[in-house]
Automatic annotation (TrEMBL):
The keyword Ligase applies. This is Ligase-associated DNA damage response exonuclease. InterPro entries: MBL, RibonucZ/Hydroxyglut_hydro, Xnuc_lig_assoc. GO terms for molecular function: exonuclease activity; ligase activity; RNA endonuclease activity. Keywords: Exonuclease, Hydrolase, Ligase, Nuclease. It is an enzyme of class 3 (hydrolase). Its EC number is 3.1.-.-.
Length: 335
């Protein structure tokens, strides 16, 4: 097994991955002077960095969430050099603007996937496999039990529930960045052209997606509408709103939730979810392992999730792997 030299210039720390020659951190969980950010989710994009390098979409998302940030936009495919390290961003297929980061230094190619998925998603650019020596990957759903069903099946369940409850409504819990827009775009793809009612917390992010060329159809704020107006409707809200006072204004809501974690019955029960929709923006077990077989990196470093199971699988397939223990990378709502 060839041994890579990347460990001499890339240092995994609990709060992020440090690229020593470039003096830059990747997705650091605390504020640093120079940060490379894979995507806008809160567990990857923190506020308070000196300078951020990210895709233009991710910078826009960070500006929306944190106010104005210093940032250098790096469009997909464009590269720049930082003290002998060539750095470029490539689509990760996770949410709008999400990127894998390719680091080239000392004759080695290292890919940091960030979060990724390989399924079609009308709201973001598709994952591109990038040849590499070292793959630094996530493993959020790194157990064989996690095989995400086709999204069309889950959207069909949502539409059927709506048709069966025209006197009430269906409220779907969906993470405000990415999942909500994907659910809405997939409803449109399935031919649903009625207005979709949204929680106020989603408006600006939906506007941002539309401004970046992702059409979502007619969206109406659910807040302030009379119960009668919401009957027969589909309402999309952040997961945290499902069980709070906000949801009480809805007419006889059927509670749905869109998350890869909905594969786990206990999680659905904990959240009082009547209609679990297994819709994930992360690679499932098959996508993770197929990606490893496709890229066949000399070494795999696993950043978060089920690092043990994926590490074991790598061993069985003669792929050298080890787990990094990064902190603050689990965001259940994001699943
Ligand atoms: Zn994410
Ligand atoms: Zn994440």
């Amino acid at each position: 097994m060839p041994r890579t030299a990347a460990q001499h210039w890339i240092e995994p720390h609990p709060h992020g991955i440090f690229v020593r020659p470039a003096d830059m951190w990747i997705d650091p969980s605390q504020a640093v002077e120079r940060a490379l950010v894979t995507h806008g989710h809160a567990d990857h994009a923190r506020s308070g960095h000196g300078t951020v390098w990210a895709t233009p979409e991710t910078l826009a998302i960070m500006a929306l969430r944190y106010g104005t940030e210093m940032g250098t936009p790096v469009p997909y495919g464009d590269g720049f050099e930082a003290n002998g390290v060539k750095i470029s961003f490539h689509p990760a297929g996770h949410v709008l603007g999400s990127a894998q980061i390719l680091l080239e230094h000392a004759g080695e190619r290292v890919i940091v996937t960030g979060d990724y998925k390989r399924r079609h998603d009308p709201t973001c650019a598709a994952f591109e496999p990038v040849a590499c020596d070292v793959l630094i990957t996530e493993a959020t759903f790194g157990l064989p039990v996690f095989n995400h069903p086709p999204i069309e099946d889950e959207i069909r369940k949502l539409l059927d529930a709506r048709d069966a409850h025209l006197d009430g409504c269906v409220v779907v819990g969906a993470y405000a960045l990415g999942k909500a827009q994907r659910v809405i775009a997939e409803l449109r793809r399935a031919g649903y052209d009625a207005p979709v009612y949204i929680h106020g917390a989603m408006q600006k992010m939906c506007d941002l997606y539309e401004a970046h060329g992702v059409p979502l159809g007619e969206l109406i704020p659910a807040t302030g509408l009379a119960k009668g107006e919401l009957r027969g409707g589909i309402v999309v809200a952040p997961p945290s709103a499902l069980n709070d006072r906000w949801a009480r204004r809805l007419p006889e809501p059927v509670t749905a939730m869109a998350s890869g974690w909905m594969r786990v019955r206990q999680r659905a029960r904990q959240r009082n979810v009547e209609l679990p929709l297994v819709i994930s923006d992360h690679a499932d077990w098959n996508e993770l392992t197929e990606t490893l077989l496709e890229l066949r990196p000399s070494e795999t470093w696993i950043t978060h999730g089920r690092t043990d199971a994926l590490g074991r699988w790598c061993e069985l397939h003669q792929l050298k792997a080890h787990a990094l223990d990064l902190v603050g990378r689990e965001d259940e709502d994001e699943g």
